[in-house]
Amino acid sequence: MNKNSAAPGGSPPTAETFPGYQRPDGRVGVRNYVAVIPTSVCAAVAAAKIAALAEGCVALPNQHGCCQVGADFEQTRRTLIGLGQNPNVGAALVIGLGCENIEAADLAAAIARSGKKTDCLLIQDCGGTLSAAAEGARRAALLARDLSALRREPCPVSSLVLGVECGGSDFTSGLASNPAAGFVSDLLIQAGGTSILAETTEFIGAEHLMARRAATPAVAQKLLDLVRECELRSLAQQVDLRGSQPTPGNIAGGITTIEEKSLGCVYKGGTAPIENVLAYAEAPAGKGLYIMDSPGQDVDSVTGLVAGGATVVVFTTGRGTPTGTPLAPVVKITGNAETAVKMRDNIDIDVSAVIRGERSIAACGRALFAEMLLTAGGRLTKAESLGHREFGIYKIAPTF
Amino acid sequence: MNHRAVVIHPADNVATAVADLSAGENVSCFVGREVSACLLQDDIPLGHKFALTPLRVGEAVIKYGETIGAATAPIKVGTHVHVHNVESRRGRGDRSEYEEGEG
Fold it and tell me: Which residue among A208, A256, A267 places its CB closest to the CB of B64?
């Protein structure tokens, strides 16, 4: 059981506020977890045992953290720190084996800079897996008991950080679910909040349109460079991504060109100006819409969004996907009426009424915004109810 | 009456079928609350596009209010718009804005 350690409470959500958790650094969480963070794959099993023993704790199943070099090492470290600092985390227990690249004490200290309580231990100092799990569970439970006393308070909607993601797209994604998600992103930004659009691969063919929305020429160039680098990475693998896009399935489904496909994808980022381009797992420096460099692979991408500070994720899908995250609720939305039935266990919101002409994108967008606020206020998403806590750190170089 | 075709943006010159449509059908196209009728010249499968205005060779095909490619043949109102009469302005290095920018 790794449910929210505090039930929804406080005042009901309004257009201006929602019940959230105030953190010492001024940011606002929508969940109140103790994160149990293994610095490397060698500590992942012990971390899982700790979270299983101590109520209110969630373990991150990190598969990396050792024998990584350069930018790849920095990216894993930045991701783990970002996840620990995410305001959905009230406190963090860092556990290391004791000999990995990423040191537990260093990671805990970096997370503690957000003002939250942290603790750390090393398996090699404790007597092994079982002893580390027992000791870790004692310490994690202490952190969780402290956190359980924290109550939700009315917090401004502007404190929300939304991550927008799509996966398993079909022709309804560009017509209904992505524009509805984009509407939510625009509404949040109008309210003074922050939204992050990821998935660099799916900017290919629409980046020139996005560059027009960049806040400054430098940001526009950064965006174009990012997509160019993504293309070059695929070429280095001797895979011409562009040559295979749109896919035969996309074409059979009516998508004619890569521009059309990417336009459908980027619609989920709405129409706001793009403030800046972020590295994977990098936190936005201000409010508004940000672009994050991440792969089209949903799990790695959503992990990056949450490490960058996203507290709630809106995820559009055509075919239906199960993706959740360990730390942030994922609201799943489809524009495909058939998928809403076939994947009913996983789909939170059906916006196929847009396709049928029964509701406007704006009406569905407003309903989705209200759903996002309810979720932020503590209501579980289907991915949370089902225990979907997919996790993956985007690796950018081989391990040595 | 259910929508059988959707127009995303008022500037669009194509509509997307949200059901399998048949030649000869007079389809109501909705842009928000505005409705216009379009007599189909071709069968249009679910998810595929048809033209709302005539398009000359080289003219931009507009969906989402943005260019998704250029017509490679004259396209009549109500006919199928797809890979047989539209090509990407991207994806071919010699014609891509982006590639030109890179020199």
Answer: A267
* Domain limits, chain B: 5-102
The answer to whether A259 contacts B90, with C-beta atoms less than 8 Å apart, is yes
Phi and psi, residue A17, nearest 5°? -135, 165
Say whether domain B5-102 belongs to CATH 3.40.1370.10: no
Instruction: For residues B6 and B17, give the distance between their C-alpha atoms in angstroms, rounded to a whole number.
Output: 6
Q: Which of A223, A247, A259, A266 to mutate to test the interface with B (most CBs of B within 10 A)?
A: A259
Across the interface, do B8 and A259 touch by the CB < 8 Å criterion? no
**C-alpha to C-alpha distances, A83 to A195, A201, A304, A311, A389, nearest whole angstrom:** 17, 23, 9, 10, 13
For residues A14 and A280, give the distance between their C-alpha atoms in angstroms, rounded to a whole number.
32
Q: Which chain A residues touch B8 with a CB distance below 8 Å?
A: 174-175, 179
A245 interfaces chain B, CB cutoff of 8 Å: yes
User: Using the beta-carbon criterion (under 8 Å), do A242 and B68 form an inter-chain contact?
Assistant: no
Contact assessment for residue A271 and residue A182, using Cβ atoms and an 8 Å cutoff: yes
Maximal C-alpha separation, chain A: 64
Chain B contact for A171, CB < 8 A?
yes
SS3 assignment, position A49: helix
Which string of b and e fits A183-205 if b means at least 16 CB within 10 Å?
bbbbbbbebebbbbbbbbbbbbb
Is B24 an 8 Å CB contact of chain A?
A: no
Chain A residue with the nearest C-alpha to that of B61? A260
Chain B: closest CA distance from residue A291 (Å):
19
Probe site for chain A from B2, B64, B84, B95 (most A CB atoms < 10 A): B64
Each residue's pLDDT expressed in tens, for chain A with a length of 400 residues = 333 433 344 444 456 899 999 999 999 999 999 999 999 999 999 999 999 999 999 999 999 999 999 999 999 999 999 999 999 999 999 999 999 999 999 999 999 999 999 999 999 999 999 999 999 999 999 999 999 999 999 999 999 999 999 988 888 999 899 999 999 999 999 999 999 999 988 888 789 889 999 999 999 999 999 998 887 877 777 666 656 667 777 787 788 888 888 889 988 999 999 999 999 999 999 999 999 999 888 999 999 999 999 999 999 998 889 999 999 999 999 999 999 999 999 999 999 998 888 898 999 999 999 999 999 999 999 999 999 999 999 999 888 8
